[in-house]
Amino acid sequence: MLRVRDALCLSIMGVLLALGMLFMVNDNEIIVFISILLTYIISVMLVKDKVGGYFNLTLLFMAFWGLYIFIGPLAAWEEGGMLARYYSGPYIISEYLIFSGIGIVGFTFPFIFSARYNQNAHNLDVISMISDDQNRQLQNLALGVAFVAFNMEMINFLRVGGLSAIQWGRVIYQTRVSDLFLTMPSQELTYIAYAIYAFTVGVSRKNGFNMKSTSKYKFMLLVFLTMPMIGTWLLFGRRGPLLTIILVLIVGFNRYAQKKTINKKILMYLAILYVLFAFITANRGIINHSIQQQDPNIFFNNFEVEQTIRRLVPTNNEFVVGLGNFDLFYKGNEPMRYGKTYMEALLSPVPRFLYPGEKPLAITYEFRDKYQPEFAYSGTIASTGFSFMYEAYLNFGLVGIFMVYCILGATLKYAERKIIVATSPIYHVFYLSMITRMMTFQRTGFFSIYSTSVYQFVYILAFFTFGKILGTPKYRKERYKTRV
User: Cβ(54)–Cβ(262) under 8 Å?
Assistant: First the structure.
């Protein structure tokens, strides 16, 4: 049922979007920016009211979406920096913001016709079904997944050359690993291991289990088993996987304990991480060179304090590619695809050697080879990514942006309501492991999003099936009703 307040919010968002369109004609980018920013803020407030709290996929998706929408225009006005490094102006800022606004309204639309989150009605009673002993066995399963990930990483590492491979640098190393026949999915399994662990800690906090000492011991063992992956990410300055693990832990620890606010301690940790990641990114070239030359003094003698400080500025990070990629591809006047890229994506999980005929190239790399061929020479996986919003526009125009984001909003709304009553930990672990998709959604094509999500679910299903064979208990299949 449509509530008066929700209808009012939707009306205000429509007025703001129309105002932005009016000033787009006059090329007043500042007013357009403010209009879409206000539209986004209203959307976040409304969606938060519907899903309850901050520790969920939907709000995380919207947080990163906002960064990709608004950092790019700020970088364009600043001039120079990372945006100018990879993309040439002038940039179509007003069009980009208006198209984003259409996506925001479309995404919010399904939540308008949704009941407000009620903590008393949706109190995660399903989680109370899990006993202390079952929770401990799930933590053991997390360690088992981490152990498999450890061995897979070692196999990949040895297949590409062992220690000598590290000297090649990040892009070449990742490319060599990606080009292996049947590359072992150690990174994906690492995410799953931490998702299982985060789920168990959240359950412990919700049910009042006394697992503090056991959890700490197992967490240290989990970190030890995943250290080869974490060490590689640190050496190559890969912030994304590290941030994924941290967010999985934060969301898992707090969501199932029904925390609805972000406390000061979490904000402090995130601030420290932001500085640390700025340091890693600013100096990863020097770190790689130091490793290649096997001389740590190269790093200590060339550490760039100024570059690290510059990296702290939001307009000097990867969020500029939201505007950059859309601007680059939009100017290419590509012919409409009428859903072709989405149809190709449905078969994307099929391995290349089983694919009927020649498997199409992911749209990310198709457009990279056409518009940024210099990245193709760096490595087969080197790229600034794609644009999820542009893919919607490429297939169905402006209507496509509204339609695709509306479907996406409906999907996340359904996931948030369904996860409350999911009786199997499989769905909760999959929910947490999807955090990595939410972080990069706006700079990725549907081809990659769909295939990696399917693989992730298959891996989780396989490990839980194997775990049940070894004794991980089954949970009672009781039905709980909720309004979806």
Answer: yes
